[in-house]
Design a protein that fits this description.
Elements (H helix, E strand, L loop, with lengths): L1 E3 L2 H21 L1 H5 L4 H20 L2 E3 L2 H17 L3 H35 L4 H10 L4 H15 L5 H30 L30 H24 L9 H18 L7 H21 L3 H5 L3 H25 L4 H15 L2 H15 L3 H29 L2
Parallel strand pairs: 1-2
Length: about 400
Amino acid sequence: MQLSFSTYYTLICAALVLLAGKFLVQRIRFLRDFNIPEPVAGGLVAAALIFAVHEFTGYSITFSSGLQTGFMLLFFSSIGLSANFSKLREGGSALVLFLFIISIFIVVQNAVGIGLAAALGLDPLIGLIAGSITLVGGHGTAGAWAGVFEKEHGIQGALTLGIACATFGLVIGGLIGGPLAKGLVTRHRLRGHGDASVQSAPDEANFENPQKIRLITTNAAIETLALFAACLGFAEFMTGFAQGTAFELPTFVWALGGGVILRNTLDYVFKFQVFDRAIDLFGNVSLSIYLAIALLSLKLWELSGLAAPLMVILLAQTLTMGLYAAFVTFRVMGRNYDAAVLAAGHCGFGMGATPTAIANMQAITTQYGPSHKSFLIVPMVGAFFIDIVNAGMIQLFIKLLP
């Protein structure tokens, strides 16, 4: 039996999840101490309740996927709209270095997945599905590759398997990033750039301080909504136009790319001042609602039904992610506070998705202070460059496997 929630009721449930998460983080010291993002805290409780309903009544509750997709595209559009070329230049060599670190991690993640799958008697391609396809790539990449594995490689149930792995990664990525970064900050006695309670200067880094009061006008809000609409329209057009070509990319990548093009065209061609505070506000709201709906949509009974070998692979991937972030990402990026925040972000999109990475970093910077460098680097690498690198890596591994 299935109980479906319409768009309106899905939005109501998402709002309740966010309010519950805020209440839990405020009241439970463990959640605050380990910097668990509010959407993750509330979302996991909601997912557990939905799981209990399914187990005791047989009802499967589903929520509006269109709403989740819409807020995801809004979030990625906000990243593009906030990325003017001056900010990209500010990221500089650190952005390139971080991208290199993540690219090496994709190789490590796929090697772990394929190696363990072979050792456990599974098809090595299943290890690839439990690697960068679903963990770095997330639900979108899992869905995109599922048909290829089912039709061309005979992996039956690849879509269900991919969605389950991506769901596992989304949850774990939101759980390990905050505690890992907190441990690095405490162990190395790192200090943030200023007091977390002090409001940073406006428009320095998007998403950096979600609790910050942003003064926007009605006209600014309308102009910003028009920019978002243009990004979504561009993304929809390019997704259809590039389908089946060498330029075929996920819709969210086109939304981000459209934002980058639109923002810099307005900045440098038309000299139009984009209202960053409004973009920041809409982006943070979209991020929170997206995560809430994503966690509401978890089907924990699918995770509980995973075969033991697959769980071994996913747990090994979790350990690999934590060790790599602590001993490679943190150290190579400078062993300082910014590096600790970047490690939290890496856990977010290395196991889950860029929105999870942003939520992880927000949880750290809210407590310890801002990290402008991290919020310049992670959104662009995690949401744009890494998807291009990952697509190439996946194709390479498929060709190398027998």
